[in-house]
Amino acid sequence: MTRFRDLVIAPLNSDHDRAGFHCHVDTFDHYIHKQAGQDIKRSISRIFVAEQSGNSKEMLGYYSLSTLSIELSQLPENLARKLPRHPIPAALIGRLAVSKNAQGYGIGRMLLIDAIKRTLSVSDQIAIYAMIVDAVNDSARGFYEQYGFASLKDSGTRLFLPLKSFKKNPDYR
């Protein structure tokens, strides 16, 4: 991580060079170039950007964060039977991407931990049962699974992890 020091994660703003961001996933590039600003304006999602302190223009990575609910039937039976019979509140990391030039330096992990910390702080004020992620490919699935995420039932790409898993781990607080 010596190449990228003093990293800051901040909300996406007009100073960030969105057009200059490129990762290995075209849909993520397209999203940050064309759609992210509209999603923020419409309160569909919030975007957070990894940048080097003193260089807020270059985006080293980003993630989107929003809310959703999941049907009880999507959860494993051992969890579902302990919960009320209505949709369960969750936080969605819809996209998490790292710039081609910044991959391999732990920035993805840092972005994930930041998303978890933000969600945990909000969960003290509003009920959120789990973090949900959409794994775009097998590599992304492996990334999330190493942190304990598991597949939702009948979902090829959607993974989840109950927030109580994070609350037990002091690294996330």
TrEMBL record:
A matching Pfam family: Acetyltransf_7
Protein name, UniProt field: Putative acetyltransferase, GNAT-family protein
A GO MF term: acyltransferase activity, transferring groups other than amino-acyl groups
Protein's UniProt keywords contain RNA-binding: no
Record flagged with keyword Transferase: yes
Domain of life, per lineage: Bacteria
Alphabetic keyword roster: Acyltransferase, Repressor, Toxin-antitoxin system, Transferase
Entries under InterPro entries matching the protein: Acyl_CoA_acyltransferase (IPR016181), GNAT_dom (IPR000182)
PANTHER family: ACETYLTRANSFERASE (PTHR36449:SF1), ACETYLTRANSFERASE-RELATED (PTHR36449)
Reaction catalyzed: glycyl-tRNA(Gly) + acetyl-CoA = N-acetylglycyl-tRNA(Gly) + CoA + H(+)
Gene3D superfamilies: 3.40.630.30
N-acetyltransferase domain span: 7-167
